[in-house]
Amino acid sequence: MTSSKKKRVNDEMNMETSNNKKQKKNKDIFEFDQENPAIRINNLLHKYDTNTVIKWCIMDHTIKLGRECDINSKDPIDALRRNKTTSMSCLPDELKRDQDVVLECLKIFNNDWNFSDSLFKSPYFVNSFIDIGGNDMSWFLLTPYGDNADMCLKVLSKDGMMLKHLKYHSSKPHVIAAVKQNGMALLFADRNLRDDVEIINEATKQNPRAVRYIYSDDIMPVSFYMDLIKKDGLIIKYVPPYVKAMFSIRLESVSQNGMASEFMGVSNTERDIAIAAVENNPMALKHLVNFEDDKEVVMIAINNNSDAAEFMSEKLKKDMKMIEHCLRIDGESIKYFYEVASNDKRLVEIGIENNSKTMYYARMNLRRDKQWILKLIQYHPDMFQYICEGLYDDEDFIINALKLNKNIITFIKKYYVDNGRTPKNKTLELSLTGKTNIILEDVTLSKDIQFCWK
To answer: Hey, where are the domains in the chain?
Structure first.
């Protein structure tokens, strides 16, 4: 090798070494140690000026993945505002003790508490944190200001349930602040304040179900409970027994929410209440055990939701007129009369007329009846997906079915694809691949097959 070539090779090697050193330095600046970023930051603070490292740390949380960021920002706080993906865990310890920087972080992500506990000793910091914090004030328990009435009042106005942990259960201003934020905080007030009309009104205004925590039964008038029930019928679960026994209260409750009947025990003499309950919510029939055999109440429920048939009496589930009525509303309701209806072709046909899934609940002997199925698919091709799976292996039957209604081809294709099979019949194979169409021909059907809806 000539001297000129050696020189050129050496120059290139020296340049590559220099570039590698620069890249390593940049890598030090722009990469965290993914296992322990804090150690890497502390090391960098010894190598580079603090401002550069701080700017680098708070610019972009994605530095952890080795991405570069703009360290030329003049103001680290401004960089923090612009990049909301930053986490306080990326900050060096000295910055975690800076009140202004931490408060700025908390404005952006107030659930990130990766800062120095020493800040909790600062009244300025605690007051500022309360102002900018969310609805979770549990951090306040870490501060030494639990005896500060003003601070506690501010905390309760942000998180009413903190009344449980603070010592102001008997302070009316503090309790009012708590229940205004969360009515359920009434539970943690002293007994005498749980009977205070002003506090009760504030609590139930924020959450009507706070009525359960009123201490005395006779402190509020009936009209108070009526107003609450008009907003939420389930409130009847928490009203005093003498109020719950009133007919007007009971009727209003189920009229607002039929499921309130679960908490009332509707007697067989309260037919108006039962009817009002199923008119509001047909599934309330589940709780009306005294009316599960009442055809009028059951019929109202089923007309609004056929699934209410599940809760009618066993006697009505064997009543053919009732079964037909349910099936004409929704054929899938046959599942509630399986023992009686699933082996009856006439009843299954009634159900299929409005819901093809009725076939899914038919007995296996019906789902294997070829002649019956061929007749049905002319009018209801969707029921074909629920026939006995073994019939898909009868390719002559499949071809005859396709001749009668080509719309069933979707279900046939799915069967062969799901099972990784190919039809043996060439005509059927070509038809499924779309290369030919099976010509419609007359298919001999049993003449005795008649349909109830014809």
So the answer is: 1-25, 31-110, 116-220, 368-454
